[in-house]
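Tokenised fold entry reproduced for everyone:
>
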Amino acid sequence: MGNKMSSISGKHEFVALHDDEVEWQEGESVNELLTLPPGIKVKIFNTDPSTGRMDMKVKFPPGYVEPEHSHKSWHSIIVLKGRMCVAGKDLRPGDYVFGGDTLHGPYEYPDGCEVFGVMMGDGSQHEWDESKHIEHKNQWAAETSDGKRGVEQQKIARTSGEVSGEN
């Protein structure tokens, strides 16, 4: 994965790390891992190929919308920074989300967000409908100037087709 964890990933051993020991990944490698629209960053702390478990942090830019999706795994998420808005709830640091292999979302990140997540199962790839994502109408208003700019930029990216990825 191109980070300092690759030498211990998948081992069932004690691990203690400082956050800055693991590099953020972005771009094509993240798209292959999660198959989401471009713009997110990921830090992989540990993986276990035998169970399909992956511990990671994900950073969503202001205005990002994660499409309504499913995947062949479940995930537990704790919000660390910013806002995650889903299922009628405005989630803040310390709040929790669980998603299984059924359709869930969309998730809106009007002011950006950083989460810690654990995925476990047969795959981290998200399956989503690009046409539904393009047509998505934001439900949550940004509270910051960066968020307001981000929401507008993300709306333009969605409607211009810049969200394409392997979905």
Summary: The first strand starts at residue 25 and ends at 26. The helical segments are 28-34, 130-135, 145-159. The chain has a mean pLDDT of 88.
